[in-house]
Write a structure and sequence with these properties.
Blueprint lengths: L5 E5 L6 H12 L2 E4 L1 H13 L7 H10 L2 E4 L6 E4 L2 E2 L7 H10 L3 H17 L2 E5 L2 H5 L5 E6 L2 H14 L6 H17 L12 E4 L5 H15 L2
Parallel strand pairs: 1-6, 1-7, 2-6, 7-8
Antiparallel strand pairs: 3-4, 4-5
Helix pairs in contact: 1-9, 2-4, 4-8, 7-8
This protein binds 2'-deoxycytidine-5'-monophosphate (DC).
The site of 2'-deoxycytidine-5'-monophosphate has 15 residues, from α2, α4 and α8.
């Protein structure tokens, strides 16, 4: 295989990006970078510092205040904020909605995209997000857009939340996902879209091992 390469994985909330990207990273022995976790960290930091994330200038100022460390590893990525491991704490629907909001601010995107590009410049990575193939790594060797019906994505997300011991229902989760799709696909800066040179994979009705297998074949064909 090539010395260093990049795999970009984009798609809407609940499309299975992180589970699949993590599994591929383990199989190929490359770094997995979850860019959504970085936007989630900004949203979490706003809450921590008592800042209303809907005030753009205040949310942007948080970027200079917070100390974020991203620690990629074989078991996935850990996020440290001001010396505290917040990896699990940012995985809530509320932080997801806050992340989607702060991700609409250009200055927030610029700063995080810079960090993401830096990480990819020194390692072979599989990076997931919303704008990886279109903006962050436009020269990535492999570009994948994962999709699934909103009903299926809601069912998967509900399962994850229930596994964390959270009580919610399918209707609520589906409405949250639909709202996030709307915000992520229609914002001004780097909206979520399938890059013209990306391969779109609809994972509706597919289980995780089948998606991983499909993508591994695709990657092996592209990277020789
Ligand atoms: O993938 P996720 O659910 O952890 O992402 C949380 C939010 O962050 C998502 O709704 C939109 C935003 N995001 C983004 O705008 N660009 C990325 N590369 C990753 C996430």
């Amino acid at each position: 295989m090539k010395k260093r390469f990049a795999i970009a994985v984009d798609g809407p909330a609940g499309s299975g990006k992180s589970t699949v990207a993590k599994a591929i990273a383990q199989k190929l022995g490359i770094l997995y970078i979850d860019t959504g976790a970085m936007y989630r960290t900004v949203a979490y930091a706003c809450g921590k510092y008592g800042i209303d994330a809907s005030q753009e200038d205040k949310a942007i100022a948080v970027l200079d205040q917070m100390q974020m460390q991203i620690l990629p590893g074989t078991d996935g990525q850990r996020i440290i904020l001001d010396g505290e491991d917040i990896t699990e704490r940012i995985r809530t629907p509320e932080i997801g909605a806050g992340a989607s909001l702060v991700a609409s601010y250009l200055e927030v995107r610029k700063k995080l995209v810079e960090i993401q590009r830096q990480m990819a410049s020194t390692h072979t990575v599989i990076m997931d997000g919303r704008d990886i193939a279109t903006t962050v790594l436009p020269h990535a060797e492999v570009k994948i857009y994962l999709d699934a019906s909103v009903e299926e994505r809601a069912r998967r997300r509900l399962g994850e939340l229930q596994a964390q011991g959270k009580t919610t229902d399918l209707e609520t989760v589906q409405a949250q996902i639909a709202a996030r799709d709307e915000q992520d696909m229609h914002r001004t800066h780097s909206p979520l879209r399938c890059a013209p040179d990306a391969v779109r994979v609809d994972t509706t009705g597919m289980d995780i091992p089948a998606v991983v297998e499909t993508l591994l074949c695709m990657i092996q064909n592209k990277i020789k």
